[in-house]
Amino acid sequence: MATRTGILFLLFALAGCAAAPRPQAGASACALGEASYACQVERYHAVSAP
């Protein structure tokens, strides 16, 4: 009985995690400074992307 209850709680926890909003891919490199090398690469890739 205790094993079934544990499995049930585990399934509910996993179902709750699946419905949670996903975090963003990450902060933009340009948030720290527009003149940084990482920001320039990010801008280049954004313009070059199809």
Automatic annotation (TrEMBL):
Signal in keyword set: yes
**UniProt keyword annotations, A-Z:** Signal
Instruction: State the signal peptide span.
Output: 1-20
Protein name as annotated: Lipoprotein
Biological source species: Ramlibacter pallidus
